[in-house]
Amino acid sequence: MKVKRIVPNIDTRNISAAKLFYQDVLGLDLLMDHGWIVTYGSSDEMSVQISFASEGGSHTPTPDLSIEVDNVDICYDRMKSAGFSIEYGPVDEPWGVRRFFVRDPFCKLVNILAHT
Question: Is residue 20 scored above 90 in pLDDT?
């Protein structure tokens, strides 16, 4: 048996609020829309990972999601321009990532990162 995919599910009554953050700003594709569930993603091959943490590193709260991007600074500018609340960074961390924390439309703390 092999795990093929891990999908986080965020409970909300306002599914359409995900579009600006996950599709318009982050650039994910709309993969599925059944009205009661909308899934955004990418056809690019990605690693399957799940993390368990007591903090977010550098004495920050543990984020709900971590999303790796190819350019943290461009993503940061897009998030700020779209009006999303930046809660930490951007910062170069000693373990080799550049990152910032932002709140998505559902108040989930999202760690946006790139390996340096």
Answer: yes
Q: Quick one: what percent of the chain has pLDDT higher than 90?
A: 87
* pLDDT tens digits, 36-60: 999 999 989 888 888 999 999 999 9
Q: How distant, in Å, are the alpha carbons of 27, 111, 112, 113 from that of 14?
A: 20, 22, 23, 26
Which amino acid would we find at residue 74?
A: I
**What is the maximum span of the chain, computed from C-alpha positions, in angstroms?**
44
The one-letter amino acid code at 15 reads I
Spatial distance between the Cα atoms of 75 and 41, rounded to a whole number of angstroms:
16
Going by their DSSP bridges, the two strands 109-115 and 65-68 should be labelled as: parallel
- Please say whether the dihedral angle defined by the alpha carbons of residues 62, 50, 79 and 16, taken in this order, is positive or negative: negative
Q: Which of 114, 115, 116, 113 minimizes the C-alpha distance to 102?
A: 113
